Amino acid sequence: MSMIRDLRAVVRPSLRKSSAPYPAYGATHTPHDPSASSAIVDCAVYRDGRRLESETTHSPREAMLRVREGGGFAWIGLHEPTEEEFAGIAAEFGLHPLAVEDAVHAHQRPKLERYDDTLFTVFKTVHYVEHAELTATSEVVETGEVMCFTGRDFVITVRHGGKGSLRALRHGLQKDAELLAKGPSAVLHAIADHVVDGYIAVAAAVQDDIDEVEIDVFSAPAKGGKRGSDPGRIYQLKREVLEFKRAVTPLLRPMQLLSERPMRLIDPDIQKYFRDVADHLARVQEEVLGFDELLNSILQANLAQATVAQNEDMRKITSWAAIIAVPTAVCGIYGMNFDYMPELGWKYGYPMVLTAIGVICFSIHRMLKRNGWL
Q: Considering only CA atoms, which of 188, 180, 142, 149 is closest in space to residue 60?
């Protein structure tokens, strides 16, 4: 027992030293440094719906000092921060280590989680990739991520991916002081609405690609052309729709929670707006599920057409083989080396046999053509 107590005495101090997963803010950033981190895109303080010193970018510590002194909230935007860059901010705002880990490493499923007095929301952004022609290797949708930490007096957005910038969204919100005065929940709603609006635009573009493939599959082939479409194109489009589906479907439940369940961090007036976002998202989800089912049907139809084309080819080959079998049989019989065979000494035997072969072959050809085999 004494040995166990000694072991615990050694282990516990080391655990206490490592219990704080992120260093204090001053350990990685200096208070007078306005940029604070190379990952920070923008950092501003908003009071009564207006940005203070709109041309100035604060450090996170300076922003929170101003918030604590005079009220309002801080909005900090980051792009693909490293663990070291995000550590000081996490310590300053008391962010939960699990949420911080998700925000830094990305590749998360859309979700809504609550850690004490902070809401952590993950959105997957979707961008349509323009292409001159859809091929079996075309990239149709490009995904990114936006993580949002929402507190009583701060919003921290962490963006991953080359698309989905929130700069235009921030500028648009700054023009609506009445909405922005509602606080951090107004920013969270604006981000959700922005992401879902992107889904609607991508769904319309993907619908055009599906229509193109559908027309290609069911249109009549040109003379001598190949019937149907390349199944690789359909399968690639189906994979892209699946990626789109992974962004849309998991987000529906978080939006329903934000629109239906009362939350301390969500202004009741803003909660009404989340209902509209949830409705739009539900519509997009129905479209995406419809895309998946439609592509399944198109792929099955394309494979069925390929099977039908193969059957038609086999019927033609079989028909010509039946026609060629007639002269083959006759020539095979008269090629046998027997002395006594009928009509071998007849003067008109040869033309008569050729005529009989021609008549029989013509009759077989006409019958097969009438039955649709040729």
A: 149
Model pTM score: 0.74
Tally Cβ neighbours within 10 Å of residue 85.
Answer: 18
Contact between 209 and 133 (Cβ < 8 Å): no
Beta carbons of 121 and 145 less than 8 angstroms apart:
no
* CA dist., res. 68 & res. 89, Å (int): 16
Contact 291, 241 (CB under 8 A): yes
Q: Residue 151: what pLDDT?
A: 92
Span 260-295, pLDDT tens digits: 888 888 988 898 899 999 999 999 999 999 998 999
pLDDT tens digits along 321-331: 888 888 888 88
- Flag the least confident range among 3-7, 107-111, 302-306, 328-332: 3-7
